[in-house]
Specification:
single chain, 390 residues, mainly alpha, 55% helix, elongated
């Protein structure tokens, strides 16, 4: 399938492709919502159903219909997730441009500011909300919706972290004023996720990027007072190589131009801190997809509704599918746009990132690190400080 929009539009404004993508994926989401209910019914009724009379296609094995339906559901989930994540992958790192040194960092003696909020974050949040509205309207299982956004936040975390590592030194982002601007932008995304019920999801899957932004948004005077061990305990989610990279490229204030010696990694962490292959985040190991076991709304074992009620429901469904759906016009203002013709299901799969995965910690240690960050960020969210600009 050809990419959406003309080449110049795709290169400059990836988010402008989302309205068309939003419309194209609607039938797939509608199919998933209904098929999930049917699949649940089949799994609960396998003992009562006889699939021996279902003919197998030529060249196929004797896979039962339930297993086939499960595989198709998994494939549909992947094919609806990849196009959206790919557009966000190419769009959100543009936020870093709005927080570069010359835009948010005043000259000497002018005080400190946080710059303007990136319009890209506003657009991304509006789209994520419109997508959530659609999935809710189609009554897609809440467990599947949560998994969908878990995968999106996982991809956003890796994309934004890697973009910050790649562009940070060149754009002058590794300093307090840029860190404050980045935190103000990220607050909008995290605040939205908390408002719609994805608090635990965003705390877990945006942990790495959020942690490095917290480090950069810490006043330089406070950072200069922390030694390596203190920094590791304050930002435990960061790998030693990632923490060492940020500190090595940190832009110190004019009053302190010498990198503190107590920022040097300890002997125990020196080997890991110098492992440059562990600096970037890997796109491998994304959250798996599993079908929920509870929370379904349709009971096909009950008698069918009365003919008149059923016919009314069918007519209402037909009308809603023919009626133009509200889509999102990202640039420059959200507007409504009529639905285009419905093509086949998306078949393009986002390429796997080739970055080397970071050194993994032991399971119990990783769980404790995420738990530490989770409770720390949760206290900020509950106190209401998250939605306020720094």
């Amino acid at each position: 399938m050809a990419p959406y929009g003309p080449p110049d539009q795709r290169a400059k404004k990836p988010l402008s492709m989302l309205p068309e993508l939003f419309t194209r994926l609607q039938p797939a989401f509608f199919w998933m919502a209904n098929t999930l209910e049917f699949y649940h019914f089949l799994t609960k009724s396998c003992d009562m159903l006889d699939f021996s009379t279902v003919p197998a296609r030529e060249g196929e094995g004797e896979e039962d219909p339930v297993t086939t339906l499960y595989n198709v559901l998994v494939y549909a989930f992947q094919q609806t997730f990849y196009p959206i994540s790919k557009v966000l992958y190419h769009s959100l790192p543009v936020m870093l441009e709005s927080c570069r040194e010359e835009k948010v960092c005043p000259g000497e003696g002018e005080g400190e500011g946080v710059g303007e909020r990136s319009i890209v974050i506003d657009q991304a949040v509006e789209f994520l909300q419109a997508l959530l509205d659609l999935l809710t309207e189609l009554q897609l299982h809440l467990g599947v919706v949560s998994q969908f956004y878990s995968n999106l936040f996982f991809s956003v975390n890796a994309a934004m972290f890697n973009a910050l590592v790649d562009q940070g030194p060149e754009l002058g982002l590794f300093q307090f004023c840029s860190g404050s601007a980045l935190r103000a932008n990220l607050n909008l995304l995290e605040g939205w996720a908390c408002q719609v019920g994805f608090k635990d999801v965003v705390l877990h899957y945006l942990a790495k990027f959020s942690s490095v932004i917290d480090l950069l948004a810490t006043p330089a005077e406070e950072l200069l007072q922390m030694d390596w061990q203190r920094l590791c305990s304050e930002f435990p989610v960061l790998h030693p190589a990632q923490l060492h990279f940020i500190l090595s490229h940190y832009l110190l204030p004019p009053s302190s131009q010498v990198v503190p010696t107590h920022w040097t990694p300890t002997k125990e962490d020196a080997l890991h801190a110098l492992n440059t292959n562990a600096v970037q985040e890997s796109f491998e190991g994304h959250p798996g997809f599993c079908l929920p076991s509870t929370g379904y709304t349709v009971d096909l074992s009950r008698p069918p509704p009365q003919a008149e009620q059923f016919q009314l429901h069918v007519e209402t469904l037909r009308t809603s599918l023919k009626k133009p759906k509200r889509s999102v016009d990202i640039v420059p203002v959200m507007e409504s746009r009529p639905c285009a013709s419905i093509p086949t299901l998306i078949t393009e799969v986002a390429p796997t990132d080739n970055s080397t995965p970071p050194v993994h910690r032991k399971g119990s240690e990783t769980e404790s690190l995420f738990s530490h960050l989770h409770h720390s960020r949760e206290r900020q969210l509950d106190s209401g400080s998250l939605t306020d600009s720094p």
